[in-house]
Design a protein that fits this description.
The structure holds two protein chains of two kinds.
Chain A lengths: L3 E13 L1 E3 L3 E2 L5 E12 L6 E7 L6 E8 L7 E7 L4 E7 L5 E11 L1
Antiparallel strand pairs in A: 1-9, 2-8, 3-8, 4-7, 4-9, 5-6, 5-8
Chain B lengths: L12 E7 L8 E2 L22 E3 L2 E2 L3 E2 L8 E5 L7 E9 L5 E12 L11 E11 L3 E4 L1 E8 L2 E9 L6 E3 L5 E3 L8 E3 L19 E8 L4 E7 L2 E3 L7 E4 L7 E10 L5 E12 L3
Antiparallel strand pairs in B: 1-21, 2-7, 3-6, 4-5, 6-21, 7-20, 8-16, 8-21, 9-10, 9-11, 9-20, 10-19, 11-12, 12-15, 13-14, 16-17, 17-18
The chains are: A mainly beta, B mainly beta.
Chain lengths: 111, 277
């Protein structure tokens, strides 16, 4: 049976301006989905996105290429799928002035 | 001889043997109690960081792996002084007798600087969270490595209770932040210096063994590597039994950072054993 694990990497946190999730180690997994659930939103959240990043060491990061569209609706859930990501994953983004998002971020991993 | 078990010294019954080469084995993030809204949670509980599986990758040497395999359970704080990462495993007990927790652990700060950084991790520790018909009992142990940048290197216990807060409106939910930095007392005996090693990316595994008796609800032993501590004068945190926690046997590992840098605690494996017929 394949191993699987879902980590809640942000819970009820409010993003504004530049944001980044904490590094999460995923070397054992071969596929991942970032789920972002919106608990609250302020401002114009049309076309707001987050980017998936990978890292060789959990310290230095580069964009992986996957982009997650974020929802401005309460309880709206969006996601981004990634694979072939090495050892570390995180989600980063930049919100424009006046926009805040309160979110729960789940990272669903599978061997 | 089983090479996986021979480095442990279990009691007659094995309750669980968690080798993190095979997943997290029921260890998960700790969350505070809440009703209706996550905002109801005590602030200190809102951002305890959850465990992950780590292959011990360092920027300069690559993956170190674990004691006897590839993966360990890793706790990583945020890069903010006082940040905590906590893992909990939730079980129940069936006989009020001796229990033992053994583990192989190592702690380190994030290697973001080319400096020794040996005082960047504030503390790491282990606690049981137990309940019998009379009391909820929480034996806490931590290694206070450093505080506000000063070396301490002292094992501590905590029996002082934190205030209990009502959560929500139902009258059914309470919460207390027992991991607060206040109320810790030194274990008798000298401080203990760990094998921190010589740069921030080298980590050595250490043996930890905590004995407790569910009948007397008292510490019965504590060993860390070659040091066997006198536990006759230390006591657990005790409070009246709470609703819905009968026979609880929870185990918790935690790590706290002393500066604005992530602190890591890695656990290669955990063996919990007990004594009953």
């Amino acid at each position: 049976m394949r191993q699987s694990h879902t980590a809640i990497i942000e819970r009820n946190i409010t993003w504004q301006g530049t944001f980044e999730t904490e590094p999460y180690e995923v070397a054992w997994a071969s596929e991942a989905i970032f789920f972002v659930r919106t608990l609250g939103a302020v401002g114009d959240v049309e076309e707001v996105t987050a980017r998936v990043q990978i890292s060789p060491d959990g310290i230095r990061w580069c964009d992986e290429g996957t982009v997650v569209l974020l929802s401005g609706e309460i309880d709206g859930v969006t996601f981004g799928k990634v694979s072939h990501f090495g050892t570390f994953l995180r989600l980063v983004g930049d919100l424009t002035d006046g926009v805040t998002l309160t979110v729960i971020v789940a990272l669903s991993l599978k061997e | 001889m089983n090479p996986k078990l021979s480095r442990f010294n279990p009691l007659s019954r094995i309750v669980c043997f968690d080798d993190f080469d095979h997943g997290l084995h029921g260890w998960t993030g700790l969350i505070g109690n809440y009703e209706k809204s996550l905002d109801a949670m005590l602030p200190e509980y809102r951002d305890l960081r959850p465990p992950m599986l780590s292959n011990g990758t360092m920027w300069d040497t690559g993956s170190a792996g674990s004691w006897d395999g590839t993966y360990a359970m890793k706790l990583a704080t945020r890069a903010k002084a006082g940040g905590l990462a906590v893992a909990v495993k939730r079980q129940t007990w069936r006989f009020a007798g001796p229990i033992r927790m053994e583990a192989y652990v190592t702690f380190k700060p994030d290697a973001t600087e080319m400096e020794l950084s040996e005082l960047d991790v504030r503390a790491f520790g282990f606690l049981w969270d137990l309940q019998n018909a009379q009391d909820r009992v929480m034996p806490h142990l931590r290694y206070l490595n450093a505080l506000d940048g000063e070396r301490v290197s002292q094992w501590q216990f905590k029996q002082e209770r934190e205030s209990l807060a009502d959560i929500g409106q139902s009258g059914k939910t309470m919460s207390h932040f027992h991991l607060a930095g206040t109320g810790w007392e030194d274990l008798p005996g000298e401080s203990q210096i760990m094998c921190y090693n010589e740069i921030a990316t080298k980590q050595n595994w250490h043996y930890m063994c905590v004995d407790f008796d569910l009948a007397s609800m008292a510490f019965t032993g504590f060993q860390f590597n070659d040091r066997v501590f006198d536990v006759s004068q230390i006591a657990p945190m005790v409070m009246p039994a709470m609703a819905n926690l009968w026979c609880m046997l929870n185990m918790v590992f935690f790590v706290e950072t002393d500066c604005d840098k992530r602190a890591f605690l890695s656990v290669d494996s955990v063996l919990v054993s007990g004594e009953w017929d």
